[in-house]
Write a structure and sequence with these properties.
- With 364 residues, this protein is mostly helical.
- It has two domains: 83 residues, 2-Layer Sandwich (ATP12-like), CATH 3.30.2180.10; 177 residues, ATP12-like fold (Orthogonal Bundle), CATH 1.10.3580.10.
- 50% of the residues lie in helices and 4% in strands.
- The protein has 14 helices and four strands.
- Strands 1, 2, 3 and 4 form a four-stranded antiparallel sheet that branches.
- β1 and β2 form a beta hairpin.
- α5 packs across α10 and α11 runs antiparallel to α12.
- The N and C termini lie far apart (100 Å).
- Belongs to the ATP12 family.
- Its main location: mitochondrion.
- InterPro entries: ATP12_ATP_synth-F1-assembly, ATP12_ATP_synth-F1-assembly_N, ATP12_ortho_dom_sf.
- Keywords: Chaperone, Mitochondrion, Transit peptide.
Amino acid sequence: MMQPISALVRRARPASSFSAIRRCLHTSSSWSAKPIPHPAAPGPPPGPPKPAATTPEERIARKQRQAELLKKGQSIKPNPAKPASALQKRFWKDVHVKQTPEGFQVLLDSRPVRTASKGALTLPPNKHQLATAIALEWDLLVSAQQALKQHYIPLTSLTSRAIDIQTADAAGDSSIRDSIVKIMMNYLSTDTLLCWAPERSMHDAVGLEQSEDRVESLREVQKRTAEPILKFLTTKIWPGVEILPTLEPDSILPTPQPQKTRDVIRGWLAALPAWELAGLERGVLASKSLLVGARLLVEWSPEFSHLRENEQSGGRFGIQEAADASTLEVTWQTAMWGEVEDTHDVDKEDVRRQLGSVIVLVNG
């Protein structure tokens, strides 16, 4: 019969050694946990700090720093051993707009700005303001390396996109146009303008939402903002179509649009001119809303000027209106909980910059 291991240990070791081993198991003393009370901070956090208004001296100093960077970029000498160092130099001194028989071109000294496909960036004769804005973009660059980043030259990249669509259409290639239409139709299924918040939720901060400054719920504000835009779209652009809210008051599952509505909108997108299609694509990607992008496009494009002839004078649908409609929920939440520095404020300005580029592109 096999003996237990404990009995074998007792026989193998003296009693004193065994007791020492047992004492080693009880050398640590126990400590009880001390709970630390969490301070209670009632109410929302304080609002973000507001930047102080710039003084003339600060603006002059900023322009001086910009001039120093331009001078430094022009004086850099490339290192032959490092080919990439050539991009750190600004190889042009002057930027100007030249009118040619084909249209306007932006010249860096004597060389025209080119598209990604290596063709000269040539703008239609009715887009002189756009050409001037593109020239200003390149005049503000301090190195050739910055020209490789689209956020430094947003109008140049957007114009290049429009020219690529126009060139593909002229060659009978509809692949670019079809891909853009497909992407924008996907945005219609979850359009920001139609995603209204539920009426009430157990997680709502009722004490903050129902304050003296807020007599409406978030859903009511979203509905009030969307109604005039939807009315314009369903009477001026797509007469007779029915556009449904994506979210019902008591559901988080998206409601699909009627097939007739999808067919009408898809046909309208497919028939847009190249410059309008490129502008709408930028507007949709910036606002996450096909409806807001379409409303902004029709308001500023000369192709749809006939739709604005009998419109009552109540202010134009511009950058601020499009940005407010597409970022309404973010504005609602940050008004309660505050902004995250270098995040919400940067996103706010970036949306306006991109929507502004749409107006400059189509209005010329």
